[in-house]
Amino acid sequence: MTRDILVWHRDDLRTADNRALAAAAADGDPHPVFVFDPRYYGESGLACDARLRFLHETLSDLDGQYRDLGSELAYRQGDPRAELRRLLDEGVVDAIYCNRTTTARYGRRVAETVRDWAAVTTFADDGIRRPGRRHADGTVAVDTRAGWAGDDRAWNEQCEAYFEADPAPRPDALPANGVESTTTVAAVESEHGVDPDKEGVPRGGTVAGNERLSAFLERVQDYPSVVSSPAAAAERSPRLSPYLAFGALSTRQVYQRLGEMPESRGTSMFRSRLYWNRHYTQKLADWPGWTERAVNPVMRGLGRESHDPDLVAAWKRGETGFPMVDAAMRALVETGYLNFRMRALVATFFVYVLGEWWRRGADFMYWHLVDADAAINYTQWQSQCNLTGVHPVRVYDPAKQAREHDSDGAFVREHVPELAPLPDEHLARPEKAPLAVQAEAGVRVGEDYPYPVVDYERRAAAARERFARLDDRAREALSDPRVRRRGSFSQRGGDRTEEDAGPEKDPNGGQTSLDEF
């Protein structure tokens, strides 16, 4: 008798290169399902309306893919554990197939509960190593960066094997879906009041993602020149990250499309970014605590007691008196997008200069990003702010970033329009513009735009001194193999390194080399 297999979609919202769907089609009749979980909606859900709308557009696109195959995507609403258990217990389906996902907090608890059911089969076809042995705090008990469990390849080699392998085949046709929908995308949007107000957000879905990928590949040779400038990145970078975050495209699909292009510095840099994506996903797979507390125990709690609500509010509003920081924060809130360099700037400013606890800033950024990916957002906050104890204390100078990456003032003028009339040479430090220049431009610092809320130089120096005092203890903590595995650091162990600092390490936007992953 043919088995009825529920295919549970989460962050794999596509029908091509979907191992769980391909296996279900081979083993029985697939019944694709997505469960809207109310926990992800509202102010406590860590998801802005623009990201929810992108998800809903992606789901509608996925439903269209299934209808082309003779099926449809069934929508349910509620706690996924209850909804899926009910469908099994009532005999609607015989089994559940799903792809492994890498997440933390509530989402991880849900996934672990479902994965433990006898009727559930999971598929790990994503380049991530997931050993079963873990310590009580969730840290993996083996080194996933080296060979293990009979696989003697280094991490980057097994990841390359994933990228180069044939994608999971898309079924040619499917039977009708035997799972009944209990809601619709429109009903969910209405119930939860989803009403995005962000501007310039790309449309969700595999079709839109493929169109964006094709357009980017036509100009991939220009990629190195656009990654660091926030204005250029917003206009001409691929902006594929939300499609990867929701799985409208797989990293393997993008990698293999990239491989069809003539080799150039642009293809090399972007290929490195795909490894970088997997690299940080592996970090969260190795220790889900990245989203909750500092990976190095010596760094835990920094800034919690010195909390200044007024400084945090100014940072969130983009009213700190540092134009590049303010432009970045307003762009984040207005568009749901920031290039990597600006994310690093506002994160280090929040922790090093304002002296605030990192989680308050990381959660705020995660809520607003349309491409929010816990594996990248939280690990990058910790890495940039040296909560790992292995990274250099790099306090990004907002004025220097403005001069080097927004020399014509395009980014600042777009997002901090009250400063637009100032000459270019005064946009980085408007408080230093002579009163005559301010008067001629019609800009009064202190009235139209705030003075700096803190003394940058003094705060930056204090941060360097504070972290220097912790350096020996942090290094000592890293002598514990469990802490090193928790951080999923390279085989170089506790040596201070920039290997995890992100994809833009030099002023020209150079990439981490693949042997360092």
What does this structure look like?
The protein has 517 residues and is mainly alpha-helical. Helix content is 44%, strand content 5%. The chain has 21 helices and 5 strands. The protein has a 5-stranded parallel β-sheet, with helices on both faces. Helix 4 (105-115) links the parallel strand 4 (95-99) and strand 5. It is globular, with a radius of gyration of 24 Å. The chain starts with a strand and ends in a 30-residue tail after the last helix. The model is unreliable at 491-500 and 506-515 (pLDDT under 50).
Our Rg estimate from Cα atoms comes to 24 Å
> Which segments are poorly predicted (pLDDT under 50) over 5 or more consecutive residues?
491-500, 506-515
Order of strands side by side in the largest beta sheet? 3-2-1-4-5
**H/E element string?**
EHEHEHEHEHHHHHHHHHHHHHHHHH
What shape does the CA trace take? globular
Q: Please indicate the percent range of residues in DSSP E strands (runs of 2 or more).
A: 5-15%
**How far apart, in Å, are the first and last alpha carbons?**
47 Å
Brief descriptors of the model:
517 residues; mainly alpha; five-stranded parallel beta sheet; 5% strand
Q: How do you describe this structure in short?
A:
The protein is mostly helical and 517 residues long. It is built from 21 helices and five strands.
List the helices and strands and how they pair.
Elements: E1 3-8, H1 19-27, E2 28-36, H2 49-68, E3 74-77, H3 80-89, E4 95-99, H4 105-115, E5 120-123, H5 155-164, H6 185-192, H7 206-217, H8 230-236, H9 241-245, H10 251-258, H11 265-286, H12 309-317, H13 323-335, H14 340-353, H15 358-368, H16 374-384, H17 398-405, H18 410-415, H19 435-441, H20 456-477, H21 481-487
Parallel strand pairs: 1-2, 1-4, 2-3, 4-5
